[in-house]
Amino acid sequence: MKKNKSENIPVDFSILNDMPTDFKIDRITREAGFQMKTSHVHPFYDITYLINGECTCFVNHSIYKLSKGDLIIIPPGDIHRSTFHGKIPVERYVLSFREEELNWIRSLIGDEIVSKSLKTGVISIPSKRRDYIEALLNKLLFESEGQDILSPAFIQAGLLELLLFMIRCQQYENNVYKEIDVDNQLMQEIATYIYEHYDKKITLDDMAERFHISRSYLSKKFKQATGFGFKEYLVNVRIKNACRLLLETNHSITDIAFECGFNDSNYFGDAFRRIKGIAPNKYRRNKEAI
User: Fold this and answer.
1) Rg (CA), the chain
2) Diameter over CA atoms, the chain
3) pLDDT tens digits along 69-122
4) Does pLDDT of 184 surpass 90?
5) What is the mean pLDDT of residues 211-235?
6) What separation in angstroms does the CA of 48 have from each of 81, 93, 154, 224?
7) Name one Pfam family in it (predicted).
8) Cα(154)–Cα(162) distance, integer angstroms
9) Is the pLDDT of residue 168 over 60?
10) Residue 189 to residue 61: CA distance in whole angstroms
11) Does residue 158 contact residue 101 with C-beta atoms inside 8 Å?
């Protein structure tokens, strides 16, 4: 485990090999109104817990509103972006770990429970248990700074305790699941349509007509609700699926570009490098590093 310090700077995990350790935790403060400049898609789990403030998290095609005491789970490969609103700064813990860190807990309680519990979703931690989880997260942060040779063991034990606590909340507490943001239902329907039909021709004009709203309203409201521009989100969804095809098939890069809705392989290559920080062919060759 390498030393990590709490810091008030952007945490961008969108590029390969961006987390050199198996575990990372930060305590981060954002001013109200801050918006992430880049979307996030990374090959490890993210858990964010809000200590104070409010924010909106857009994950894949779902919009969640988070407030004090809420915890969101974001599995590897999920597109997400957060927008921080309200009138006070947002303070949160951001914890990241790789899939391999789940081997221990899977051996204890079984793969089915772990897989079911660590899907995308928001848990509202009961108020009577928030002191406990915040103390646990603070302990993980303390040990991540490399106190001594026992710190890696304390981190592993602490992560196991955190995950078991989350699963217990899901299994035995009432009303811990936060619903998707119903105030933005139309934008969620539009995002879901894009997410499921990314391989088809999709334009802003076509979507405005399909959902019976104006082009300008769709563009403005989609950005407000998700943090993504319409075209930006469409391209990110297509790149996400292109990554999957690059790793799971032997299809040519040109064929993958067309399969994912791009009508120009050169544009696909440029978009891929801009979002992933690496060319498609190099991404495919670096499969073991992902």
Assistant:
1) 20
2) 61
3) 999 999 998 999 888 877 788 999 999 999 888 998 999 899 999 988 888 889
4) no
5) 94
6) 12, 6, 20, 21
7) AraC_binding
8) 12
9) yes
10) 8
11) no
Contact, 78 vs 47, CB < 8 A?
Answer: no
- 3-class secondary structure, 263: coil
| Intervals of CATH 1.10.10.60 along the chain | 185-289
Single-letter residue type at 198: Y
Domain limits, CATH 2.60.120.280, in the chain: 23-172
Residue 1: pLDDT over 80: no
Where do runs of H (alpha helix) occur along 45-203? 103-109, 111-117, 130-144, 151-172, 185-196
At residue 243, what is the residue type?
A: C
Domain spanning 185-289 has what CATH number?
Answer: 1.10.10.60
Distance CA 113, CA 31 (A): 37
Place of tokens 């899901």: 170
Residues 6 or more apart in contact with residue 52 via CB below 8 angstroms: 68, 88, 89, 90, 91
From residue 226, how far is each of 55, 152, 157, 232, 281 by CA, in Å?
11, 37, 36, 11, 30
Alpha-carbon distance 157 to 14, whole Å?
A: 28
Q: Where in the chain does DSSP place strands (E)?
A: 23-30, 45-52, 54-59, 62-67, 70-74, 80-85, 90-97, 121-124
Does the domain spanning 23-172 belong to CATH 2.60.120.280?
yes
CB 88 within 8 A of CB 32: yes
177 by DSSP, 3-state: which? strand
Q: Name residue, tokens 């390498």.
A: 2
